Amino acid sequence: MSYIEEIEVAELQQQLATGSEDIQLIDLRRPAEIIRGMIPGADRLPLHLIPENLNQLARDRTLVLYCQVGVRSAQACSYLTSNGFDNVVSLRGGIQAWTNSGLMVA
Known about the structure:
By secondary structure, the chain is of the alpha/beta class.
């Protein structure tokens, strides 16, 4: 696996709070996991559906991907990079780090 760029929870929260139009936030978890909550503003796209839904992902924005703890988002970043996406970032620690930081989920 190649180098995966990561973003910390605090940095992502700050960017989302400023209303950054430069980010497309993607939740890679399965529907059963999403029931427990997701980061507000995120799009849902389970990891296994990425190959058939590449056209739903913005190539002109930074894709911030997250899962439960960061493993699947790292895999997705690697896959997307190998398929021509330039700006893909994994949320370090996933939604678990987000909620452990006291941030809300929808």
